[in-house]
């Protein structure tokens, strides 16, 4: 992990096209501004993990559905 120290209105660059700026520091909260191309998804980590979990559930449901259809047609033959 890279650890950097920044002050308000200072920024870091990730690659050539992602810029993260420290907007303000208030108590134990830091407000960040993120400039990135529209094709880059940006989520809070807890939201990202929730999306990943839902995607795993959906893919399992789809596999079970397809296996059920496969079994149905095997019995028909």
Automatic annotation (TrEMBL):
This is Translational regulator CsrA. It comes from Peribacillus castrilensis. Pfam families: CsrA. GO terms for biological process: bacterial-type flagellum organization; mRNA catabolic process; negative regulation of translational initiation; regulation of bacterial-type flagellum assembly; regulation of carbohydrate metabolic process. Its main location: cytoplasm. Keywords: Bacterial flagellum biogenesis, Cytoplasm, Repressor, RNA-binding, Translation regulation. PANTHER family: CARBON STORAGE REGULATOR. One of its GO terms (cellular component) is cytosol. HAMAP family: CsrA. Homodimer; the beta-strands of each monomer intercalate to form a hydrophobic core, while the alpha-helices form wings that extend away from the core. Belongs to the CsrA/RsmA family. It comes from the Bacteria. It is found in: Cytoplasm. InterPro entries: CsrA, CsrA_sf. Signal peptide: none annotated. A translational regulator that binds mRNA to regulate translation initiation and/or mRNA stability. Usually binds in the 5'-UTR at or near the Shine-Dalgarno sequence preventing ribosome-binding, thus repressing translation. Its main target seems to be the major flagellin gene, while its function is anatagonized by FliW. GO terms for molecular function: mRNA 5'-UTR binding.
